[in-house]
Design brief:
By secondary structure, the protein is mainly alpha-helical. 75% of the residues lie in helices and 0% in strands. It has a domain at 50-191.
Length: 208
Amino acid sequence: MLATADLIVVLLALVPGIPSNASLAQLGNWRLLTTVVVPIGVLLLVNVLPHKVKCMLVYWKPYGWLPGCEVFSRFAPDDVRIDMANLTKNVGPLPTDAGAQNARWYQLYKLVENQIEILEVHRSFLMYRDMATLSLPFVGLAPLCLYFAGASEEAQWIGAGIFLVQFILTAISARWSGIRFVCNVLAIHSARKVAGATTPRARKARPS
């Protein structure tokens, strides 16, 4: 829906001759493009791209980096809601390796995933992340569509600029939503002990 709405707005705003000069056949083609072809392409793009690629585009980090990779070492200590001493007491030793941090955070997340403060921010993170992912290709596609629609070179640059600004804004929103998401999980575990959160201690071997 976002891509369809963006495409329609850009075409109508930057190519004002389309509504008045286009024939019925041309208008039918534009309708087909914006209501069938573009949404299908959008769905394919969203579903085909791995979530790690989407996070790479949003956070401008190497492939495989996720917000949980620095949640214990960077984000949680900066969150005033999280008492690190209480968190350690309630969940056990906190990892420092990036992969171990993300794995441990995911374990803690699964224990509280259905709580309202987690569901809402998770939904926001996914929404902004996908919006940013969809906006980036249109930085190049918008001027291309405008070129074939007969728009001026200036209009093509404006179209690219609109989607570039949209990408930056949605990427920043996704970043903060993602950080808020991972920190919300730890804020709950810091405030109270959740059943199953403590890392089980290794059992001592019994003498034979």
